[in-house]
Structures are given as structure tokens and as C-alpha cells.
Amino acid sequence: MLEAEMAHPVGFEPSMREKLIVAPTDGRFVPLPPEVFTTEGEWVEDGQPVANVLNGGTPVVVTSHCSGWMMGMLAMPGQPVRRGEALFWVWGC
Asked: How many Å apart are CA 16 and CA 34, to the nearest integer?
């Protein structure tokens, strides 16, 4: 039996329903206005814009990479963020 087969038996696919939406670039985190996106408890679709990161004054759109329930915002408005830093927590992807 191969080592990979021993780690994950046939028919077993490890998965997590919780996903993170991360910053696409370094900059300052700017959530979308509440009229557009309210964050917690809202359903988001794959590709839906959820925030911006200002990089040198230029907004870079942050989009969800999956569909699911938005469970929370993990960064504060105006907070400096690094590329790959978690900004939101989504459940159900």
C-alpha cells in the first residue's frame, strides 16, 4: 500500500467547511459599505466583492472564492494587512 493511501483511505476525503478570504495584496483593509455588504450572517457567492484593500491609494477588490455564510470579519477597517492575511471567515463552502 502506498504511503498516500495509508494516510487517506479510499473513499475518505478530508475537508473543512470553514474557509478564509484573504488579502490579495498589502495595504489597508476597507470593508464595503453596509448598504452593499453587511458581513456577519450574510450569504456570499463565489466571486462576490466583499471589501477592498487600498494599495498605494489604489483599491484592490477582495472577492469571495466560494459560496457560503459569512461568519465574521477578521480585520478592522483601516487596519494594515499583508498579502495572504485572513480578512473574513466563511462557512459552508
From this structure: 28
Instruction: Find cell 473574513 and name the residue.
Output: 88
pTM of structure: 0.78
Is 16-91 a CATH 3.40.190.10 domain?
no
Q: Which residues contact 23 (CB under 8 A, 6 or more apart)?
A: 29, 53, 62, 75, 81, 82, 83, 84, 85, 87
User: Do residues 30 and 76 lie in contact, with contact meaning Cβ atoms separated by under 8 Å?
Assistant: no
Angle made by CA atoms 66, 68, 72, in degrees to the nearest 5:
105
Is residue 36 very low, low, confident or very high in pLDDT (cuts 50, 70, 90)?
confident
No. of helices (H) and no. of strands (E), the chain: 1, 8
